[in-house]
Amino acid sequence: MEWGWDNGRAIIGLFVITGIAWLLSENKRKFPWKIVVGAVVMMYAFTLLLFGVPIIRAGLDSVNNGINVLIAATREGTAFVFGPVIGDQAKWEQLVGAPGPIFIFQLLPLIIVIGSLSAILWHWGILKIITNSFAFVFQRTMGMGGPTSLSVAANIFMGQTEAPLLIKPYLKVMTRSELLIVMATGFATIAGSVLVVYVTLLRDTLPAVAAHLITVSIIASPAAVALAMVMIPETEATSKSTGETDFKYHSTMDAFASGATDGIAIIWNIATMLIAALALVYIANALLGAIPITINWNGADQRLSLDMILGWMFAPLMYMAGVPMGEAAQAGTFVGQKTVFTEFVAFINLGNLPADAMTERTRTIVTYAICGFANFGSMGILIGGLSIMAPERRPDFLSLAWKTLYSGTLATIMASAVVASLPYGLFKTADEVVPPSTVTIQPAEVIPATPAPSSPITTPAPAPETAPAQPTPQTP
Q: Which of 96, 97, 98, 78 is nearest to 88 (CA)?
């Protein structure tokens, strides 16, 4: 396994990220160094455990087979509801000769299936046992109160507004530091309902992507806790009660129906955010493209675009996280898209990025960095959801909004730095073949010549008479 300067720089990046959090601290004299050191140790321990122990690694790799079953099961449902053509991507392409509306009719319905399955597993107690086990680890190793540790553990599997429901009675008595922990961990992780969709977007270009997404949800949680406590050190007595509320399902059928209904709400929220985000990207690129400036970007002369600006903004952080200098700006682009728009936009673009446009190691680091809900749109969703649960704490939720965004973003980048600091051979599957360095040119179909966009969604400014091509998500 090779180890070099890029790996060593990622270790320095852990100190840089922690230093940024300290600069944003409300009490710089009270630095929770034990919590920070403990969080870093936990992140390395979980990563080495998940990828270094053969039995556990084999279990993670087998998750891909389970996802194939979920995709096939979802296709059965969509084919029945939408018809055998619209509901099946292969049949659509065979009939029409072009990619169909796969995103809304096949990828997003996965969320309904996962939502129902998660609710059933919670009602049966399986998911509850796993969540409580993680909560016990966080409580014992990081000294958090019972309700806080339960919320942190639940965020590994649930969404940013679902996990706090487990501790709803305690929100009104939590300290500001505890509230920031609850909010930050929600921004540093993703829900299991969308994890499967992200796997389908990246599975063709990143081996073992399911294992990576599960890992980042686990290791980003202690990172978010540590950064939150650096920004707002605990100075009050924490809530120690280990009591918990519960999702009240009356039966398995009730859990099934409630999970499906919740999945529908998530789908419409995602679709709405994507429509608005892509429209804003188009407008921004049109305005930026009107500036008479040509810049060399990814080896080609292009007009100024949102990709470039976001890439420059986050390039220093990604460089310190272990990304080589030559790919730092490109990697920063995806982190910027995740922050300004949604992680869905970033994952779609990363999935559509050609395999030879970015090294596999950098693609893995970027996957960890963008795997979280930390974005501007989620700020409103999280504050709105928490305000309904504890309206008397709404002023606190509002005052913590920006620190939540900062800590959630830095937590996923911190997780990517941990992975980048380790030899990349650790993350390769046993049967994975390293691609040759030479490029073999295959015969291609003759297609009309069109200018290639810099990325499938965030494209350079369009010409006045033409609009940028819309992205075509990959076929799962």
A: 78
Alpha carbons 244 and 312: distance in angstroms, whole number: 44
pLDDT attached to residue 122: 79
Asked if the model's pLDDT at residue 459 lies above 80, the reply is no
Determine contact, residues 462/286, Cβ cutoff 8 Å. yes
pLDDT > 80? residue 243: no
Cα 151 versus chain centre, distance: 18
Cα 417 to Cα 45: distance, rounded to the nearest angstrom:
14
- Distance from C-alpha of 189 to C-alpha of 408, rounded to nearest angstrom: 8
- The predicted structure's pLDDT at residue 378: 82
Half-sphere exposure of 167 (CA within 13 A, CB side): 32
Backbone phi, psi, residue 295, to 5°: -125, 140
pLDDT tens-digit series, residues 87-104: 566 666 666 665 555 666
Write the DSSP assignment of 358-379 as a string of letters: S-HHHHHHHHHHH-S--SHHHH
Contact 370, 350 (CB under 8 A): yes
